[in-house]
User: What shape does this take?
Amino acid sequence: MKVIDLAQIPPPLIIGERLNTQGSKKAKAMVLKEDFDGLVTLGREQVEDGAHCIDVCVATTERSDEIDFMKKLVKRLSLEVEAPLVIDSTDPKVVEDAILQIPGKPIINSINLEGDGTRFHSLAPLMSKYGLPAVAMCIGPDGMAKTAQEKIDVAKLLYETGKNYNLKPWQFIFDVLTFTLATGEAEYANSAVETLSGISLIKKEMKGCFTSLGLSNVSFGLPSNARKIVNSVFLHHSIKAGLDAVIINARDIIPMSDIEPAQLKLAEDLIFNKHTNALSDLITYFEGTKASSVNAPKKSDLNPDWDYDKKCHFRIVNRLKEGIETDVVGSITNRVLKKLGGETHQYQTVSLLREHPDLAHEAAVETLNDVLLPAMKEVGDKFGAGELILPFVLKSAECMKSAVAELEKYLIKKQGVSKGKLVICTVYGDVHDIGKNLVKTIISNNGYSVFDLGKQVPIARIMEKIKEVDADAVGLSALLVSTSKQMNVFVENARQMNLKIPVLCGGAAINSDYINRVAKSDSIYAPGVFYCKTAFDGLRVMNTLMSPEKEVFLNKWRDKIQSWKDKPSTTSAKEEIPQSQITPVSPPIPPRLDVETRLEPKDIDLYKIWEYLNKKSLFVLSWGIRGEGAKDLGVQPERLYAEWKDRVVKEKLFSPRIVYGYFRCHNQDRKLAVESKGGTVVFDFPRSSKGKRLCITDYFGENDVVAFQAVTVGTEVSLKIDELNSQDKYTDAYYLHGLAVETAEALAEWTHMRIRNELKIDSNQGLRYSWGYPSCPDVSQHELVWKLIDPVKSGMNLTEAGQIIPEQSTAAIVVHHPEAEYFLL
Assistant: This one.
């Protein structure tokens, strides 16, 4: 469900440790009870807390069915948790069987050369066969490596042995090993220092390999309230030494800035063995400290004695919008007073600024560049480091917007202070714009003039706007693979028209390889085509393009593109498609055929629909409430959800509509032929190349019944989101958009349940498949659905690319077969 790079920027790759029976009593109890739902929830919670991957170990002495249990669990995890897995077992057979259940590539935990190296030689062939990385413990024939030199020596031995299996450097994630500092034994007093040195040596001498740690080992045996502090401080220094990955409970990590100086000193004294009493001092301190006082970030209130610059900075970083205008005026006033040779003070004097417009303009520019923009940069850095979640970033952006609005009153308009001009839009055929709106918010609040053309924008309109405003760059966004092709079309048009403008590209449909391909097509597009994964990536590119370093930056980029080589495509002889392994079942009897059922807003109770809403999807995926940054959320997600539901109903922001219908269908030549009053409509669904080689058509017989449905929350919500954005209420727009998306999914689930009831089948029988997802990715097939149930009458239209308008809408084919499952192509 999600791809994760081993090399995280910023590091480390976090591997959640809680779903491991060897280290978690909770996980072990769930395994013994066969509580698969609980284990999946445990895995999902780790992702919500910031883990990139999940370590999975189900071995217990009380059970003898490790293989079967692991197979069932990893299959559930792969389908239900948005994170790759790390397979942890001492039995190579368990590891291989688990690998075969996973649609992507997991990490193996772990290999080593202990004894005769049996474990390494049994797992290395799997690494080679399936192209998998593994955690390589620095354990050699003589046991665990303790000194830095021993660690690098064992790492080299592991690597050289791996050459016999054609293993590549990236397949080695060296666990440098750390030992507890709680024993007080002289032998282990410097173990943490040796570990840090070992990390540095491996990163220096083993190019292309990775490093990792089972971090919590370092504090094993210490008081529980001390462990989080020691672990967090040790992690900080490990990352500085070059650590790439860490196995840890992400919830327990504390930012260094939130650790009290006294606690930080005690931890560092122990880690670096600064004196003989380091261990006893730390234990004495924490035994007298309440656990709750550790790991409680302390937010200082704004100090009224601070100067105006510091107040402005503090307000933006801490999202304190009220009073920002006063502090901005105070900052500008004090700068003008300095220029006049007077004393600064804590009182703003607007009349003074009006008397000296030139000085006020100059001071306003300084306040923008020296105070406001650095504050937003800090917000961006915290977001990039995982310390802030997106709603907090938007709150800071609202604060920044108010500050800039006040500051602009003192600028001489003809001179302007814009750092540059960016034309931005969602490409033609694409109706999704939440990502594009975030980019606009972040970049405009960092001193740039952003000209937002909206969504579904034709190439000609983009070209016109670039020339009209003399833009410095253009930003293009696309959600779908089909619409992302417009980016290539734009670049080709820019070449032909000799339009020398840098292009910033973003969106879920693209990656760096795709953008490199666009940039290098025919010849390198000299002005630059840049892949911007996040809004802050876009900001960094804009800042560089508008800086004196622009040419150096572009030259390096051109050299990089010149040396970049596209991945060769793998082609093979056309395989014979296997016969379906699915046995058709007797079709249910529908209440009516070839007649659409339509439900209007008056027929739909939103509160009943919301009973089908996936709250975890709303909170984590749509609202981005996860990880360290979620800890300071001002309101509880449940309360926020309740408030937004009441607001939606009170202000009539949603106008839900539903249409569905039943049709006779036939599995003919492995295509699904659907009879309707308008003629036969034929669906040619793609077939998976993996596992059972499934296709949706397989679930239907020669004479069968199929249902189609389409739902929408209506057009009003899109207008309201645009209105909120225009009023600089970015956070409200973000929350409303997320609720609208998840409400559309809830409408679809409610409709599916209604269809099951009408067909008189079990409430969990069959599945619905929506276009755009792995089992049927081609959204252009929406046109066939529209011929059958005519969603246009319910307010739903299609773009040329097949996307549904309004954006918060979805359509699906409903399969009644009890063996139906989701699969990847």
In short: The radius of gyration is 29 Å.
